[in-house]
Amino acid sequence: MPLVEVNKLKIYYEGRTAPVKAGRQRREFVHAVDGVSDRIAVMYLGKIVELAGTKELLAHLCHPYTKALFSAIPMLTQNDHSGRIILEGEIPSALRPPSGCRFHTRCAYRMAKCSEAEPTLREIGSGHLVSCYLY
Ligand code: SF4
To answer: Domain coordinates of the chain in residue numbers?
Structure first.
């Protein structure tokens, strides 16, 4: 199976499951992702920030953007706000992305070097790659 862009799958998922309970939605989403792809690549402003086998990634969300993305799933009911990570700031232009880590303008964990040099996508184990100075 080809890699699935999580944002697109999430949009597809939102369209077909809006009325169900939050916990059930998360489980269904995980099953949906697992069923259509062996690997997941999470992209931010046109760059892969995290790449791993589906089960590995779902068990160990690492990149701050990946965590925020997946935390949004229970919000589909608009009743369960627990655990939701709200990103600060505006979405930067993909035509003029921020220097360094493209996510640094919205990241709660940013350090000085995050805006200076772009982190490389490097393996942290089990074929799990992350582009972040936290790893
Ligand atoms: S490299 Fe820095 S700004 Fe980018 S995701 Fe990691 S901690 Fe956040």
So the answer is: 4-87+118-130
135 lines ligand 1 (CB under 6 A): no
Please name the residue whose Cα sits nearest to atom 6 of ligand 1: 132
Ligand 1, residue 119: give the atom nearest the CA. 1
CB hemisphere CA count around 110 (13 angstroms): 20
If the chain, 135 residues long, is cut into consecutive pieces of 10 residues, what is the mean pLDDT of each piece? Answer: 53 45 58 78 94 92 93 61 79 92 96 97 96 97
For residue 135, the model assigns a pLDDT of 95
What pTM, to 2 d.p., does this model score? 0.76
Distance 17 CA to ligand 1 centre (A): 32
Burial of 122 (0-12, 13-18, 19+ CB in 10 A): exposed
Cα 110 to Cα 30: distance, rounded to the nearest angstrom: 28
* Rounded CA separation 111/39 (Å): 29
* Pairwise CA distance, residues 114 & 102, whole Å: 9
Beta bridge partners of 6: none
The first and second tokens of residue 86, run together, are: 């709200």
